[in-house]
Predict the structure.
Amino acid sequence: KAGVTQTPRYLIKTRGQQVTLSCSPISGHRSVSWYQQTPGQGLQFLFEYFSETQRNKGNFPGRFSGRQFSNSRSEMNVSTLELGDSALYLCASSLVADGSYEQYFGPGTRLTVT
Amino acid sequence: EDKVVQSPLSLVVHEGDTVTLNCSYEVTNFRSLLWYKQEKKAPTFLFMLTSSGIEKKSGRLSSILDKKELFSILNITATQTGDSAIYLCAVDVGSGGYQKVTFGTGTKLQVIP
């Protein structure tokens, strides 16, 4: 079974631009969660999508948004990029059924904002 | 606010040593506690714990949860240099079909030969 894939793997943007990151979950997984990882803050929860609906959201500004498609693929968008948005963005998928709540992570997208 | 605290923040041991990593939590709605290992890439899943007192084991790694005292430990016996990584503890505070996972900042383990 293929794992979680994320594209692109690396991205360099300038302040003020916007960016869209993509995540394809493990086949059959309906839940996709997004995280931001920085050296200072660790892994911070951004949001979770389940069956095309955002179910939970972390404490991030409205510049961070996302969506999920009917095939469970998810995209995350960050508008008006700031230097502090430089981070590793990880997505994780899980089955969320019958007690299976383990999350499996993709390789991440390393975003650098200059 | 949900909180997951790991200790120690970092640890250096020699090959063959046994280490114990700690994770305590304070959350509104506990569903499960998860341990991950992160090397220079995405975290890889180690264990999911939902019940107190039941040890989960995988090779030299084991973990146990205490839901009364709100903590978990991860033990690694006979450590090897390949165990060097950041170990992340997380708590799933979701319910029903929701999933919301709060992570600790991790324990950085370095195993030296």
